[in-house]
Amino acid sequence: MNMDFIRKLPVPRDVKLQFPLSSAVIELRQKRLEEIKKVFSGESNKFLLIIGPCSADREDAVMDYICRLAKVSEKVKDKILIIPRIYTNKPRTTGLGYKGMVHQPDPTKAEDMLEGIIAIRKLHTRAVEETGLLCADEMLYPENHRYLSDILGYVAVGARSVEDQQHRIVASGLDIPCGMKNPTSGDISIMINSIKAAQSCHTFLYRGWEVHSQSNPYAHAILRGSTNSHGQNIPNYHYEDLAALYEQYSASGLKNVATIVDVNHANSGKKYLEQIRICHEVLHSCRHNTDIGKMVKGFMIESYIEDGSQKVEEGVYGKSITDPCLGWEKSEKLIYDIADQIV
Hints:
The protein is of the alpha/beta class. It has one domain (12-341): Alpha-Beta Barrel (TIM Barrel), CATH 3.20.20. 39% of the residues lie in helices and 15% in strands. It is built from 11 helices and 12 strands. Helix 5 (165-171) packs across helix 6. It is globular, with a radius of gyration of 19 Å.
């Protein structure tokens, strides 16, 4: 093999034993997780906001941001459940560039995955301890999910991973809501099939074990737009898109018909300010059509302390080093505006 084996990394169980959760955090997580699940099952009418940086890059700025979110969350808790994004794995289309904290806990230094694994567990744990909010991450590497499996409240499978067999069947063994994004092609049937796989039981190979999954009834859709053969972004958040998704989704016989609308990525063409307008348009569609209103459970929003994005070497505190994000002032106002439109 044309690879250098650097070192054997500790198994998730050992990392969890070295960095355990307190009984208070375990209890808090279970309570918050039940609240989130009830949104997807339809038992709760609260609206979800999965909001935060495109990728977590430094602990101090991410914690600053989440602590701000926690204060806003307390003011809108009767209508909205906020799930902060702490995305520690960053998919790269070409494989080049910053791949997230699990690779580089310090983006200005060399990759160190042992330090990265420790850093992401500490960050996720600290977020729950200090804010009481359960956070979200992306399952870019199914094998690595176990390092955080006892602390996360939500996980997403990205557009480039959703067709992968391993991602689908590992999602079927998770005990938390798992969002399956539509693929970059925009083919909704592929996303529906991925949800069906995640809502089924499977026997498969995982981390050297033969395992059997019990199915995940909270697997659901995430609409993130698509890209056509000419590389142009094609949004799929419009009224007609949501109505068509509802028909196809309902006919599939899947449990807990639900979708989250990702208002950035191909839906906004990565024009981060468009996220505000898109949220308002989707909420209008929800008011206009009861079925759409029941199906749309929330938004995924890319937001950080400062507007836009930067190169790593610029070093601006709280500004994304990957996709451009909505700054804090605009984000805070948007959260309140969304709450005002929810009955």
